[in-house]
Specification:
7-stranded mixed beta sheet, 5-stranded parallel beta sheet, binds thiamine diphosphate
Length: 631
């Protein structure tokens, strides 16, 4: 039988569907999402939850003239389907295929690129202000989840958007969940509104009824709005937003298209910033996801009938290794505390949170706050471990400098997903941390070569009295090179193999690649020196100078941008030494730096992307051999 969804080929096609078919269309979209995401992997539960909301937005707005800005953007799949990209879903998050996030370059219906949380209200406000200045008339809507609303930037934007005399719509998609259960005071506040279940009609009816009371009606209505008691919460919820100067509408049943359309149409008529509070169920329509939305937030390929992943790996990831070590360390030291920003599962702190609930802090999607909060914990005498993804730590650059490194607090940053992460693409690649961390005076930066070294550096961190960043990649923890376990000494590298002619200095994940490169060079009759860099900051100056004096070629390898990375530090050191006349050799070594060029790396398979960037063993070996021939 022909599907309703098959009649949607381009933006606004949904408007040709009769209302009595909306429910069926919603079901078809859910079936499509399940069928497709179970084959490709991706963000499932959030998208299942916004099917009706997205349909309603597309029914009320004209795309691409009107603008929808999706916060984080992981829930934009339904929007992609309704804007003519359904057939591209087999390539979702693969190299050359469509992105898992909104991308302006992909469609003119994607109004703003997102990926990191809590940016949508700022971007939407900018759009609205620009629209007004240019005398244009389109509608701007930001769609932000209750999780994303825990991020500080959202409040900066709300503050700025308050008391505007022009229209801006904020749709608050409240499903009680961030990736895990949402946390904090605002989450509780929203929950209290939800419990009252006083929907939009009721609120507007009450307000109108109060106003109709002869003579005193207007002032009673205003009085109720101004009061802070629970009666107000029942009669007119959303007082927090109203007090800020933002019109609040809701709560609205986010799976009732009629209600949603009515609310969005009413919001469009407002001459100010209006927040429409929409209640949805994360994972809606797929029981396993409804029951455990965290597990189905982001999924690999899975079997729809059982909900089980298609491939399971028994190999431990760095995240799991970190998770286990944290438990062991916390058992031995009561001062150890764990901090994460809305990602207890992703960062490996979940078990810690269960075993040591009092010493665990999920601060919400608030990386800046997480860092300064940890500095405060350290100031109070605790030993904080902040578990965070590399790309999200970018947000807290000033806090790292101002609150941790200037006062020199011994906070440990356990930086996961460092390097190429793959399917999530540009916004999530952790390829800047070595550069931005190395530039901070007082910061120590370490990258372990394998899982044993992650254990050793964490053990070392317990008595290390300085700020320390430990960065490790996504996925399976390397188990090779086990016999190399030289004690960790601050600022010192580890010499793995001594050879001649070429010295290869590899950072963290690249040590495994360097081992392969060494094998290949040995086959070509060259015995290279191989160094596990360990500390990218401070670098092992003594060893680097020694190697530069004793080899023709010094090669650096890192899964980080070349700009400001380890390789440039080596280059700068050698140049400085040469120009100061301190170089011990007559002909100092030439350097060859391998890393990521000055570009953003799009989504795709990790190994494929590394090979494209020339960071695979074959490409590097070829270049080394070529260079050696020239020397
Ligand atoms: C700055 C930043 N930190 C962390 C994340 C990881 N992350 C992606 S989605 C998400 C939860 C978002 O929750 P919510 O906004 O409520 O959306 P839902 O998935 O529940 O629909 C988190 C923490 C991110 N994208 N950006």
């Amino acid at each position: 039988m022909a599907k309703i969804l098959d009649s949607i080929h381009q933006p606004n096609d949904i408007k040709n569907i009769p209302p009595e078919q909306y429910e069926e269309l919603a079901q078809e979209i859910r079936d499509f999402l399940l069928g497709s995401i179970s084959q490709t992997g991706g963000h499932l539960a959030s998208n299942l939850g916004v099917v009706e909301l997205t349909m309603a937005l597309h029914l009320c707005l004209n795309l691409p003239e009107d603008k929808i800005i999706w916060d984080v953007g992981h829930q934009s799949y339904v929007h992609k389907i309704l804007t003519g990209r359904k057939d591209a879903f087999p390539g979702l998050r693969s190299y050359g295929g469509i992105s898992g996030f909104p991308k302006c370059r992909e469609s003119d219906c994607d109004a703003f690129d997102t990926g990191h949380s809590s940016t949508s209200i700022s971007a939407a406000l900018g759009y609205a202000r620009g629209r007004d200045l240019l005398g244009e008339k389109y509608t701007v809507a930001a769609v932000i989840g209750d999780g994303a609303l825990t991020g500080g930037m959202a409040y900066e934007a709300l503050n700025n958007a308050a008391r505007m005399d022009t229209n801006l719509i904020i749709i608050l998609n409240d499903n009680k969940m961030s990736i895990s259960e949402n946390v904090g005071g605002v989450s509780k506040y929203l929950n209290d509104i939800r419990i009252n279940e006083s929907y939009i009609d009721f609120k507007e009816d009450v307000e109108a009824a109060l106003r109709r009371i002869p003579r005193i009606g207007e002032s009673v209505a205003k009085g109720v709005k101004r009061s802070k008691d629970s009666l107000k919460q029942i009669l007119m919820p959303g007082g927090f937003f109203e007090d800020l100067g933002i019109d609040y509408m809701g709560p609205v049943d986010g799976h009732d298209i009629g209600q949603l359309v009515k609310a969005i149409q009413a919001a469009k008529r407002k001459k100010q910033t209006v927040l429409v509070h929409v209640i949805t169920k994360k994972g809606k329509g797929y029981l396993p996801a409804e029951e455990d939305p965290s597990a189905y937030h982001g999924v690999d390929k899975f079997d729809v009938s059982t909900g089980q992943p298609l491939s399971t790996s028994t190999a431990l990831s760095y995240t799991q290794v970190f998770s286990r070590i944290m438990l062991r360390m916390a058992a031995e030291d009561e001062k150890i505390v764990g901090v994460c920003a809305a990602m207890p599962y992703g960062t490996g702190l979940y078990k810690f949170s269960k075993q040591y609930p009092k010493r665990f802090f999920d601060v919400g999607i608030a990386e800046e706050h997480a860092v300064t909060f940890a500095a405060g914990l350290a100031a109070a005498g605790m030993k904080p471990y902040v578990a965070i993804y590399s790309s999200f730590l970018q947000r807290a650059y000033d806090q790292l400098i101002h609150d941790v490194c200037i006062p020199h607090y011994p906070v440990v940053f356990c930086i996961d997903r460092a390097g190429i992460v793959g399917a999530d693409g540009e916004t999530h690649q952790g390829i800047l941390d070595l550069s931005f961390l190395s530039s901070i005076p007082g910061m120590n930066v370490f990258a372990p070569k394998n899982k044993y070294e992650l254990y050793d550096i964490l053990k070392f961190s317990r008595t290390f009295d300085e700020p320390l960043a430990i960065r490790y990649p996504r996925g399976k923890a390397y188990e090779g090179l086990r016999k190399f376990r030289a004690p960790i000494v601050a600022g010192k590298s580890e010499l793995l193999y001594e050879g001649k002619d070429v010295a290869v200095l590899a950072v963290g994940s690249m040590v495994q690649v360097a081992e392969d490169i060494r094998e290949r060079l040995l086959e070509a009759g060259i015995a290279p020196t191989l160094v596990n860099v360990r500390f990218v900051k401070p670098v092992d100056t003594e060893l680097i100078l020694k190697l530069a004096a004793g080899h023709k070629l010094v090669v650096t390898l890192e899964e980080n941008v070349l700009r400001g990375g380890f390789g440039e530090q080596v280059d700068a050191l050698l140049t400085r030494e040469c120009s100061a006349g301190r170089h011990t050799s007559d002909s100092p070594a030439k350097t060859l730096n391998f890393g990521i060029p000055d570009v953003y790396v799009e989504h795709g398979n990790v190994d494929f992307l590394k090979a494209t960037l020339g960071l695979d063993a074959h490409s590097v070996t070829e270049k080394i051999l070529e260079e050696l021939k020239k020397l």
